[in-house]
Design brief:
heterodimer; A: alpha/beta; Vcp-like ATPase, Chain A, domain 2; 8-stranded mixed β-sheet; 13 helices; 14 strands; 42% helix; 20% strand; B: alpha/beta; Rossmann fold; 4 domains; 5-stranded antiparallel β-sheet; 14 helices; flat; transferase (chain A); SAM-dependent_MTases_sf (chain A); S-adenosyl-L-methionine (chain A); tRNA_MeTrfase_Gcd14 (chain A)
């Protein structure tokens, strides 16, 4: 299939990873240029670069990752011609159908080739995939694609309506995968294509329960057994890193502090307006010391209101709190103690106060904050793809033997006639 | 690439039948699965379901159902389902209790006389007071329940990866670290396992991951596993897979000591003072030690040479420490898949990895699976289901280019700046004038942010 060399070469298909939601295939052809909103890249400059490299754009704006294609990346990047199969279903079907290196597999229809690439990878050069597509334009497009991905040896693509015309092989494959609107019409054809010398497997992929009902009747009538049905999905989880959740007593204390500060402010305002009245009377005789204390009081007020805003922020944002939240809480606690000190003795030196705060908090913020990670399922996920109906077709010889056994039941056992000692 | 070409590709690969020495899985009428090692000329005892000569199974294809009669096996047709015709019966007239149609003694006597199970069930039905009052669905259920009890039959199960994983999972899921068949298949696909690839695996899940890797490699490529014991690890799951020697031959194992580049093998030092072997047995012992030592050295060199295509981890140890250790040996664009029964383990890992630029887009997912009872007119999900198959983290190894700048770097810088702003605002002490730098701000974060500001990151956001 795709290149297994360490470095990217001319003609290689690479997967350009821009973001999780923007992954696209790129055929390297020197002379061409890749122009995206994540920068401009000359193909020639990508040749010789190891797969998996992060490449900065020529103008320094943005970068891309160049990945080696895998069927899983191809599923993310492929051009959609139809609804496609995704990882969960592909993986489960591969596993149940026992697809492995050397397996011979039929797939109908080809669609956008998502399942085809995965199966071609898994069966490898010793296996084979026969793929059928009834829509001619899609068949041609897929054929082109398989060819350019170096899958000619592994995949045989046929344009045909298998429900009407059946498959091109007889008594050949180990498993059949039917992703058709009416799989029941292809069940008998599938039976012909399956090998008769061993137990073989079939999977029908249908989104509707009504389709499943018709399919299981067809499978049962055709002699398939162990009919079973599954639904499988992938639930992606998102991870968030949060600081430990604050306790309600912290919040309670914060609210108490706020109330106390508001009360203190109110008393100060009353005192201020009184002193202002006094000041007017003896404006001329005021000394500088008093000036300072007024300034100080003013600073306290500003600080008080600023802090209130902050506290409210921290209460409302407690869930998506930033990493700095914890040290901040500690600092605030310190600041609060010092503020009330200042309230008790208005003459306290401002410089000492600052030093005190800094000294208290330095060891606090020096510690790495503990960051528990939490996870939850994505808010919106794929809820249904299709029902996977599976069944087994036993070897023809076994079915024949069983039916003769049923027709002529053996004569009743004679337990005492021949006593054979058990060896174990 | 056209019609018809396919028929020439008919496989030459012979049919794999049941062989002496195989470890096989049998489904007994109760629905339980048993495992046993098949030896030529033995007798296999299935308890109340009967016993039979093991030779009867040898050479048989997998997947058939047998009746046991007189220690011999008879292939019986597998169960097909019939449409159940609706009747007027509603179960409403059934009086609970007093339904036992045959006494225990009578049943035992019937069983001893060799009467087939179907006969016993029929007699029970004949004497069952309420049977005709049952709905057709209830009758079916009743017959099925009785068959599970009395029929002397069983089916062989093909040891596919799915079936073996399913057997182990149902038997004791903790031994598989909760790896369910659907989870396992996702792991193998996410890790892009292909024949001919070279992989690393850390499997503390009884070998289910190793079994999957070996199956998907099909004897082509390479697998190095790293384990926590001195001698090569026992991967018990491999027993049921019945792999051929060729399939297993591509696997070598190291442990966390021998996988360490600092480690000096003790074995190589030992053969220095064994120059003059005294006896034949000693010579062979020395030779054996030498070949073991050279195999070990070779495997170590191979690991340290790196360029592996993928890594799968299902381990009880700290996954981050495992990735740190093995990351250097992975090729660019290699897939890394880490499984854990606990979401916390992989979330913590994801939180660490997303800050390291050599791990591309680490993502966590959980497999969800639902099986249905499939019967005409009676289709519904099974009443009992597995709760979880564990959690998977997938990421891709990339080579970082620290000089490249991106949307993300730009956003991160912006975020760092705003965080800084928040912390600056909130830490402003009462006497500080606005804009004064808070000395407690993390210096590293700051300088990083400043660097980003200088960075010519110019993104379209």
């Amino acid at each position: 299939m795709w290149s297994t060399a360490r470095e990217i070469a001319e003609g290689d298909l690479v997967i350009v990873w821009m973001t999780r939601d923007l992954v696209q295939p790129l055929a390297i052809s020197s002379g061409k240029e890749l122009n995206t909103r994540f920068g401009v890249y000359r193909h020639a400059e990508l040749i010789g670069v190891p797969y998996g490299s992060k490449i900065g754009s020529r103008n320094g704006k943005g970068f891309i990752h160049l990945l080696r294609p895998t069927p899983e990346l191809w599923t993310l990047a492929l051009p959609h011609r139809t609804q496609i199969l995704y990882l969960a279903d592909i993986a489960f079907i591969t596993s149940w159908l026992d697809i492995k290196p050397g397996s011979h597999v039929i797939e109908a229809g080809t669609g956008s080739g998502s399942f085809s690439h995965s199966t071609a990878r898994t069966v490898g050069p010793t296996g084979h995939l026969w793929s059928y597509e009834f829509h001619e334009a899609r068949a041609n497009k897929a054929r082109e694609e398989f060819s350019s991905h170096g899958m000619d040896e592994i995949v045989t693509l046929t344009h045909r309506n298998v429900c009407k015309e059946g498959f091109t092989v007889v008594d050949t494959v180990d498993s059949v995968f039917l992703d058709l609107p009416a799989p029941w019409d292809a069940v008998e054809h599938a039976k012909k294509a399956l090998r008769k010398d061993r137990a073989t497997r079939i999977c029908c992929f249908s989104p509707c329960m009504e389709q499943v009902q018709r399919t299981i009747i067809a499978l049962n009538d055709a002699g398939f057994t162990e009919i079973t049905m599954y639904e499988t999905l992938i639930r992606p989880h998102q991870v968030d890193v949060t600081p430990p959740l604050p306790t309600v007593s912290t919040i309670g204390n914060q609210l108490k502090e706020m109330e106390a500060r508001r009360e203190a402010k109110r008393l100060r305002q009353i005192a201020n307006s009184r002193s202002r009245g006094d000041k007017r009377k003896r404006e001329e005789t005021e000394d500088s010391a008093e000036d300072q204390s007024a300034e100080k009081r003013h600073a306290d007020e500003v600080d008080g209101s600023g802090k209130r805003v902050r506290t409210e922020v921290s209460v409302t944002q407690e869930l998506d709190a930033t990493l700095t939240e914890q040290p901040t809480t500690a600092r605030r606690a310190n600041a609060v103690t010092t503020t009330s000190d200042a309230g008790a003795g208005p003459g306290t030196d401002g410089q000492n106060l600052t030093a005190h705060v800094v000294k208290e908090e330095t060891p606090e913020s020096g510690l790495p904050p503990s960051k528990p990670s939490v996870s939850k399922a994505f808010p919106e996920v794929r809820g249904h793809t299709s029902y996977l109906t599976f069944a087994i077709l036993l070897p023809a010889s076994a079915i024949a033997e069983a039916s003769t056994n049923m027709e002529s039941p053996t004569t009743e056992p004679t337990p005492e006639a021949e006593v054979t000692p058990a060896t174990s | 690439m056209d019609a018809g070409e396919g028929s020439s590709k008919n496989a030459t690969e012979p049919v794999r039948t049941i062989q002496s020495g195989d470890t096989i899985l049998l489904r007994i009428p109760s629905g339980d699965v048993r495992t046993l090692k098949l030896e030529k000329g033995g007798t296999i005892n299935l308890g109340k379901f009967g016993s039979f000569y093991s030779n009867e199974l040898i050479g048989q294809p997998f997947g058939l159902t047998y009746d046991i009669s007189d220690k011999k096996l008879e292939v019986i047709p597998p169960r097909t389902f019939q449409e159940v015709e609706e009747t007027d019966a509603t179960n409403e007239l059934i009086v609970d209790g007093q339904v036992q149609p045959l006494s225990l003694e009578e049943i035992e006597a019937l069983k001893k006389s060799g009467v087939p199970a179907s006969e016993i069930i029929q007699r029970q039905i004949d004497q069952h007071k309420n049977f005709q009052l049952k709905t057709e669905y209830s009758k079916e259920k009743y017959k099925k329940r009785k068959e599970a009890k009395y029929s002397k039959s069983f089916s062989t199960i093909k040891p596919t990866l799915f079936n073996v994983c399913d057997y182990w999972f149902k038997k004791d899921q903790s031994r598989l670290r909760d790896i369910r068949p659907d989870t396992l298949s996702q792991i193998l696909n996410m890790a892009n396992i292909r024949p001919g690839g070279r992989y690393l695996a850390v499997d503390d899940a009884s070998g289910i991951v190793v079994a999957g890797l070996l199956e998907r490699l099909g004897g082509q490529g390479r697998l190095i596993t790293i384990c926590d014991v001195e001698s090569p690890p026992a991967y018990p799951v491999l027993t049921q897979m019945n792999f051929s020697k060729e399939v297993i031959s591509i696997m070598s194992s190291l442990n966390w000591a021998t996988a360490d580049e600092e480690y000096t093998p003790v074995l190589t030092m030992a053969d220095a003072n064994a120059d003059t072997p005294k006896s034949e047995s000693q010579r062979s012992r020395v030779n054996k030690r030498k070949s073991m030592a050279s195999a070990l050295t070779q495997t170590r060199e191979e690991l340290f040479a790196g360029e592996f295509d993928g890594l799968i981890v299902a381990s009880q140890y700290d996954p981050f420490s495992i990735l740190e250790k093995l990351m250097p040996y992975l090729a660019g664009s290699a897939s890394i898949v880490v499984h854990s029964p606990y979401v916390q383990i992989v979330s913590d890992l994801q939180a660490k990895l997303r800050d390291i630029p050599t791990y591309l887009a680490p993502a966590i997912s959980e497999a969800w699976l639902r099986q249905y009872q499939i019967l005409p007119g009676r289709t519904h999900p099974l009443m009992n289901a597995s709760g979880s198959g564990g959690f998977i983290l997938h990421t891709i190894k990339v080579y970082d280019d620290p000089s490249a700048s991106s949307v993300n770097t730009h956003r991160r810088a912006k975020k760092a700046r705003s965080e800084q702003l928040v912390s600056r605002l909130s830490s402003t002490a009462p006497e500080q004038t606005p804009g004064q730098r808070e000395p407690a701000i993390d210096i590293a974060a700051q300088s990083a942010a400043i660097q980003m500001e200088v960075d010519p990151s110019n993104t379209p956001s």
